[in-house]
Amino acid sequence: MAGAGGTWTEKTLHTFTTDGSGPGGVIFDSAGNLYGVTFVGASSNDGTVFELSPGSGGTWTATQLHVFGGTDGAGPVGSLVFDSSGNLYGASAYGGSGNNKGTVFEVSPGASSR
User: Fold this and answer.
1) Number of domains the chain is built from
2) What radius of gyration, in Å, describes the C-alpha atoms of the chain?
3) Does residue 10 lie in a domain region?
4) Please, which residues have CB within 8 angstroms of residue 54's CB and are 6 or more apart in sequence?
5) Residue 75: which pLDDT band, with cuts at 50, 70 and 90?
């Protein structure tokens, strides 16, 4: 956000701990939620898809939408994209069924992928 005299200020929205590491590829939805990926971390250490939702007083709440487990992908990279139904699509650098060469994935609202 631009400040007086053209200066910019920085604010940390979320600090990753056990919920992922190496975040990137963030995009907003129309409601102001921020979505992205972590390259590694979480319970499997294969990365995650996350959502940050704005709250009152400038706080943000983090939610893991999907934790990768290797066969479904590992090390998600790049930006996510939405389709008209609200599904998120992305790619992983590793993982996949038997070849470890990566995946293209879809994460859908309401799906049990946590």
Assistant:
1) 1
2) 15
3) no
4) 32, 33, 60
5) very high
The whole-angstrom separation of Cα 56 and Cα 93 is: 36
The domain in which residue 49 lies consists of 21-107
**Residue whose C-alpha is closest to residue 50's, from 58, 59, 39:** 39
Q: Rounded distance, CA 2 to CA 96, Å? A: 43
Q: What is the pTM of this model?
A: 0.88
110: tokens are: 């309401």
Q: Cβ(75)–Cβ(39) under 8 Å?
A: yes
What is the 3-state secondary structure of 70-83? ECCEEEEEEEEEEC
Handedness of CA 76, 10, 27, 78 (dihedral sign): negative
The residue behind tokens 């704005």 is 54
Element containing residue 5 per DSSP (H, E): none
Residue type, 5: G
**DSSP three-state, residue 57:** helix
What pLDDT digit, counting tens, does each position of 94-104 carry? 999 888 999 99
